[in-house]
Amino acid sequence: MEVLPLAHALGAEIRGVDITGAVTDAEIDAIREAWHRAHVIVFRDVEWAPDQHIAFSRRFRGLDDHAATPHDTLEGYPELLEITNIPKNGQPSQTRNTGRNWHSDYSYTNRPAAASMLYCVTKPPVGGDTMFCNMVRAYEGLSDKLKGIVADLQSVYDFSLVSGVGKRDPEKIKELLKINPPIAHPCVREHDESGVKALYVSERTSHFDGMTREESEPLIKFLCAHATRPENVYRHQWHVGDLVCWDNRTTMHLALGDFDESQPRRMLRTTLRGELSGFVVPPAA
Ligand SMILES: O=C(O)CCC(=O)C(=O)O
Asked: Which residue of 97, 125, 234, 281 is surrounded by the most CB atoms within 10 Å?
């Protein structure tokens, strides 16, 4: 197995292992180790069916059944989210604007996603890129004073800040807001497998628990800008057959709308289930 860095801050391509075949436990361990080091790993030229995608993902961890976003799964496969701009039943796709702000998956639930594995089925001729930033480096790059301040904060995640909410079916959004009330998670989290500390704040953080939105906003903005500086980012330009796997405990990502929306883009994602976390809070003043 070869591990080739894709950027200085994060990202590595893995070659020399056929993930569509019988992957050994030793190979899974080696992939996991490379994943912990690079935070985002990429496999190229993968040709597989949904069942294989699910089975490979399960080798790392239990999978989320996406009950927090039940309308977005591939029919017959609750373990697969379908993210596409291809219209469904004559209606615009509800997932066509997914991921258009910096975020970590399922942060608005009580089981923030541990990791995600996104497979490219169809892509536009140019664009439709996804950017990733390293939240371990973001944390480590703070002054000791600010590290101490953020260590005491709880980031509140609000489903209404998920990108594209305003462009989705209002009835479904009402239901999703009920399923996913605002929830607070520690602003600095320790990774449950590797033990590293990472910042946990994003453009979906409405405020810090116990502070108003007005008080919280400058710090949220600073932390997001600090985390997403170009030198802390890897930008993935997709090819059909890419499987990109990211660790949501140590990264944020952003799906760019940098493509011709009349061209089809279709991706399938498994979500590796995270630990139980957080507490539900009332919306901020
Ligand atoms: O479509 C993409 O590139 C990423 C979508 C996304 O943000 C997500 O799956 O959370």
From this structure: 234
